[in-house]
Amino acid sequence: MRAARDAWLVFEDEAGFTLTPPTTRTWARRGHTPVVHVRGRSRRRLSVAALLCYKPGHPTRLIHRPRADPRRDGRKSFAWTDYRDLLQAAHQQLGGNMVLVWDNLNTHLAAGMRRYITDRDWLTAYQLPSYAPDLNPVEGIWSVLRRTTLANRAFADPHELITAVRRGLRQLQYRSNVLDGCLSGTGLPWPHYNDTTH
Length: 198
Known about the structure:
This protein is α/β, with parallel strands linked by helices. It has helices at 80-94, 111-118, 138-147, 158-173, 176-184; strands at 8-18, 45-54, 61-68, 98-102, 123-127. GO terms for molecular function: nucleic acid binding.
């Protein structure tokens, strides 16, 4: 395999966030039920693509890119060129080969994306099995974000949502124990390079 030798193992996933907050358990005085007030029912959405990057002997890295949709229906997500740019930026930051593991999203399988991967000797890509989000540690990042930074919080406008998501992801970038725990939670083995074959 071209990029598998001494490479970063990189998992990718995308998630969408809206102005309507995720709810989670909280506490309150008996008889005083907490209420989260939401302004309107906006469908504006923020999409975020994230990479969790693992390599023995190196701290785990979280690289992310938000994409706010200016349209009112808020339904446009990442194009294959957005993923290309994210992977190129990650390669520059990591400074090494990458083995990419992601799902079967049609954008990941686009002809342009396949050509881009084929033409890069530092990049090898694998698809996860269908309907197997439990094998992707990036799902753990979204779960942590929704249970902490975004939980029980109503956002007045898209800018406030973007700011909160970026802040939450930046905080997670410095919590290597949480990033490592996301991989452990999948049950997948920690990457190692004992194999000497090419």
